[in-house]
Amino acid sequence: RSLMPRTLDSQITVEKTPSYFVTKEAPRRIFNMSRDTKLIVVVRNPVTRAISDYTQTLSKKPDIPTFEGLSFRNRSLGLVDTSWNAIRIGMYAVHLESWLQYFPLSQIHFVSGERLITDPAGEMGKVQDFLGIKRVITDKHFYFNKTKGFPCLKKSESSGLPRCLGKSKGRTHVQIDPEVIEQLRDFYRPYNIKFYETVGQDFRWE
Predict the structure, then answer these.
(1) Structurally, what CATH architecture does the domain formed by 20-132+177-193 represent?
(2) Hey, which of 22, 127, 155, 198 has its CA 20 to 30 A from 44?
(3) Looking at the keywords, is Protein biosynthesis present (predicted)?
């Protein structure tokens, strides 16, 4: 709490840390700080997410093993290595269980990473509704940046420089063997189905 900025009663403080969702201690700590906290989680196809994760790491550490080598303990047997972070993070149903021990589902909002790209205003509208605030951010505040492959946010409808994702975002993903992708889809399928059923939302990752 001491690290949070000072806010008025009429304001909402938003803090963003990607690792919260997969950190075991986070639900209890946040609950102890404020059990009324609203939680927003951005999720995307776990296979795509793992490849993106690997692509980011490879850009910093070019000598790491192949994606295939890190993904499996035994590929011929289809044994996926769930100890590898890039794989483990996408097991959303497992991580969600820890949060539901402390927070009701009504206090957790899930944003589709795919729809955040194709319909940013729509996803942001749902976020604003979830937070109980007026819909200020609309489709007038976005434009698609072809170079990055992502939408960029305009400061206002007519003025100000657009706010785009940093240089580390929008990298071309490493090419992965289609058979490896299919094996990972099979691995994630039961986790995805359980996740859909728990949150009452089909993200269509199949």
Answers:
(1) 3-Layer(aba) Sandwich (3.40)
(2) 155
(3) no
pLDDT at site 1: 74
CA proximity to 48, closest of 160, 164, 192, 147: 192
The answer on whether 44 is annotated among ligand-binding residues is yes
Is 169 annotated as belonging to a binding site?
A: yes
> Which amino acid belongs to residue 65?
P
Q: What is the DSSP string of 59-126?
A: HH-TTSPPHHHHHEEETTTTEE-TTSHHHHTT-HHHHHHHHHTTS-GGGEEEEEHHHHHH-HHHHHHH
Encoding tokens for residue 58? 């490879």
Q: Please give the model's pTM, rounded to 2 decimal places.
A: 0.88
170 is in an annotated binding site: yes
Query: Is 141 annotated in some ligand binding site?
Result: no
Does residue 126 carry a pLDDT above 80?
A: yes
Q: Of 200, 191, 199, which Cα lies nearest the Cα of 45?
A: 191
Amino acid at 7: T
128-152 exposure pattern, b = at least 16 Cβ within 10 A, e = fewer: eebeeeeeebeeebbeeeeeeebbb
For residue 52, say whether it is annotated as part of any ligand binding site.
yes
| Sequence-distant (≥ 6) Cβ neighbours of residue 169 within 8 angstroms | 148, 150
- 171 in a known ligand binding site: yes
Measure the CA–CA gap between 156 and 97, rounded to whole angstroms: 39
